[in-house]
């Protein structure tokens, strides 16, 4: 199940579970659309994977399957999956 991380790793802006501007790679590194497109060119800076729109979990499913509350902010990049 996707973690639905709560923020952009690059600029640290909030990305709630229903954010339409959240982008992820296959390792779930999470970025806002602005950073993904303008700063990163659609590629994850950690693994060079494609950044795609993050699926939104239906609100009625968040009670049993909540989004992550752990913020990851590493503008310098990191190894995906760690």
TrEMBL record:
Region (Disordered): 58-82
One protein family per Pfam: DUF1272
Highest taxon above the source species: Bacteria
Organism: Pseudomonas weihenstephanensis
Name this polypeptide is given: DUF1272 domain-containing protein
């Amino acid at each position: 199940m996707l973690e639905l991380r709560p923020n952009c790793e690059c600029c640290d802006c909030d990305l709630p579970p229903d954010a339409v501007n959240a982008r992820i790679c296959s390792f779930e590194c999470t970025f806002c659309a602005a950073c993904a497109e303008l700063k990163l060119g659609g590629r994850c800076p950690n693994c060079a994977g494609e950044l795609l729109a993050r699926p939104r979990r239906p609100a009625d499913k968040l009670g049993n399957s909540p989004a992550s509350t752990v913020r990851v902010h590493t503008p310098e990049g990191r190894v995906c999956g760690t």
